[in-house]
# Entry
Amino acid sequence: MEFKIPELYPKQKEFCKSKAKYICYGGARGGGKSFVLRVKAILLALNYPGVQILLLRRTYSELSENHIIPFQKMLKSYEKDKNKRIATYSSQDKVFTFPNGSRIKLGYCDNENDVLQYQGQAYEVIFMEEATQFTEFQFQCLTESNRLSGHCKKTIKTRMYFTCNPGGVGHTWVKRLFIDKEYRATENSEEYIFIPALVFENKYIMENDPDYVRTLENLPEDRKKAMLYGDWDVFEGQFFTEFDRSVHVIEPFAIPKDWYIYFTMDYGFDKLAGYWIAVDFDNNAYVFREIFESNLIVSEARDKIISLTNENIYQYLAPPDMWNRHKETGKSTADIFAEGGIELDKTNNDRIQGWQQVKEWLKVFLDEQGHKNSKLKIFSTCKNLIRCISQIQCDEKRIGDVAKEPHELTHAPDAIRGFCVYWTCEPILVKEKAELPFELQENQTEEEEYWW
# Structure
């Protein structure tokens, strides 16, 4: 029984030899990612008796076509003669077991919370194939399972391997760690390595399928940049293509006391996403504070908002479902907020119109000084809004809508949508001059004053 290492080209060898804890390979189509991933997994299983390896794809169909069938061929698991098998395969458990006790477990995470099934388990090595299709939450959960299992009979350092292309729901976290190299407090920069690979380096494709390169060259410009050249600044499926961190994200400053302050939110027991927004006299909006918490009942959410509010709030904006009455009490969420002194105003829940208005607010233009600018700015301290609005993708079936999965990414944009669509809804007649957000125009009476 033997496993012959196939011929690898330089970047693939670099991937196999790397000793970093987190190794990311790819960046473009045709770089031989899936192939070298299987080779590395097999080499680890053979060299470290008893090692526990987990290999994940996002969906089962991808897992079956890209790995289960190719692994069976490479490991000869289908051989009737057991002596010819390099490993045996259990279709029920989706596990390849080697004579030395090593195991390669194949799995998938179709829904975001599917990753929780691996909590409490231990794998010395984890492979995430097409890592940009996984959310940061899923990646972080998997790091908890990347530990010594107690079965490996040879000293091994735990590690994780990633293959990917630009784009997908995980584009931002992969780009941060491996491309931009922006690390947080406990992240060690020396543990991360990115190995770029282009189709031009794939000798097999270049010699046997040159038409594939021409196919990539004929893609729309943005997609071509990502898929052919591995450009991480653009990716397919991004909903808010207008979002530009250099324009929309600003450092905090003291909000003038005479600006109007709005609070907008999306509330559910799974997540309260709330934002304080200041509007200046030129109708520019500044998102300056956020709350992003889970498992708060209505009264707790209300009281938390009150405790974080230091300003006079002109209006509290909320989606229509907060006026639905609960069967148990006969009260609505809006009623419970009102009992604590917060009177909510209902926003328009038209998703398509709402997202278009968010795009209008995010639209980048050149100001009078020739600088890039936009009507909506976000303080750098609102980290969850920045993360979610940059990662959320287009709905594949409903044009003009955002994808509802991963659900965790939808709360913050939904809250901002409420504010943006509110400012473009039908004008509201304001009768009390003290409440007017703008000065009366010449020849206008109080009853004629409208605001948007």
Remarks:
- The chain has two domains: 10-227, 245-435.
